[in-house]
Amino acid sequence: MSDHIVRSGGIIPATSISRRGLLRGIGAGAAVVGAGGLLEACSSGIKGASASSTKAITIGWIHPLTGDLAGFGAADNWVISKIKETSPFKNGFKVGGKTYPVTIKSYDSQSSVTRAGDLARTAIVSDNVDMLFASSTPETVNAVASQAETLGTPLVCANCPWESWYLNLFPKGNPTAATEKAKYVVLYFLGAEHLAACFIPMWNRIHSQLHTDKVVAAAFPNDSDGNAFRGVFPAIVDAAGYTFDMSSAYPDGTTNYTSMITQFKADKADFFTNVPLPPDFAAMWKQSLQQGFRPKLATVAKVLLFPTDAYAMGSEVYNVATDTWWVPTLPWTSSLSGETCQQMANEYESAVGQQWNANISNYSMFETAYAAFKTVSDPHDHDEVADALHNVNINALAGPLNFTGNGAGWIKPFGPAPGVAITPPAGVQWQKGTKYQLEMQIVDNTLLPDAKITADLLPTNT
Fold first, then answer.
1. Measured between alpha carbons, how far is residue 405 from residues 134, 186, 236, 309, 426 in Å?
2. Which of 86, 61, 87, 88 is nearest to 75 (CA)?
3. pTM of the model
4. Is domain 193-324+426-444 classified as CATH 3.40.50.2300?
5. Is omega for the bond preceding 413 within 30 degrees of 0, making it cis?
6. Cα(12)–Cα(251) distance, rounded to whole angstroms?
7. pLDDT per residue over 406-461, tens digit each?
8. Boundaries of every domain in the chain
9. CATH of span 4-190+328-422
10. pLDDT band at 23 (very low <50, low <70, confident <90, very high)
């Protein structure tokens, strides 16, 4: 793989540009180092303070920019470009009376669990990062979290259901009484229980409209997300008055879903939910439509969260519902720049040429990092920085983020582990668009009342 330069809006080959031209062209840019997948900081442009005797604070971000989960990383390069415009990251962090330049290194996991873990070790052992970020599904986050906790490096995680994250770190833990505390690792996101509580109000509305049989077909894979959902969904769904028709656990990468579809049809399931990898859902849903399984409402997790994945399936996903933890109508602002969610969404659409993306909220990993670093005496002391992470309590672009372990935002009987900040979801639906071929419409705000409803909930099939 050749070297590249990352710009806001895309990646271009670096081999055709001189180093001087590279620095002049992107200023605070970064170059990817071959097979390692590392976006290596170039000169001092990215480091903010142009002259300082202090050692730079180095932050590494491990995320899927290519591979099956690339949709999760679609906004990430743009987020980095926005972060580099903010005063703290541009001018350096003021810590203990000194100003420290900041270096950002981005590592592409290529959607590989093994690679994510290897990159974490590289970042910690070879690149001496002061803090790591890991985002987007257990396939990336959990492997990085294991390495960070073992090797003693502060880590901020995002976009991974908290139960999966917690059980990875504490395999004998109990999500209904999660008292174990990771020393170096914190997470902001939602849990499987929030997704159940997000989907049920939408099922209720379709049931009232179409008088369904209240049977929910569930297809959960044999992986970290699937295991978490199997442990959480049945009790919540049963308590809401629905029959939960769960298929056997299937391996990621399955290509034939006929037996599962036959089961759902025989049981007259009017609702459908799942948590698959994007390519698996594409095959599963196509076969369901071909074989006559057309649920009144499909509510999916982990897939169709972002425009690129939805566009790839075209009209097949009209009126399929999912969740989102961030929307432009939320009244939150950046703690670094003061920009609103709507301003961020508008700028993203203008710069990238696609509709807004919920992972603009990954921006708040940087807000969390800054909030922690500015309270310590030595930003290179991993133990001190990790302690500071667990004391962060800020209002950020992703919403209120409280890592102090007070349990805010959880749904009984589930309580997030110490170091977990909950960002609850809204219900959204992919509907035929006007500006874009498909548009994500906010159709339910039961768990996120600040999210403005933008369209009526429609049946997936009538």
1. 20, 10, 23, 34, 23
2. 61
3. 0.87
4. yes
5. yes
6. 36
7. 555 677 677 788 999 999 999 999 999 999 999 999 999 999 999 999 999 999 99
8. 4-190+328-422, 193-324+426-444
9. 3.40.50.2300
10. very low
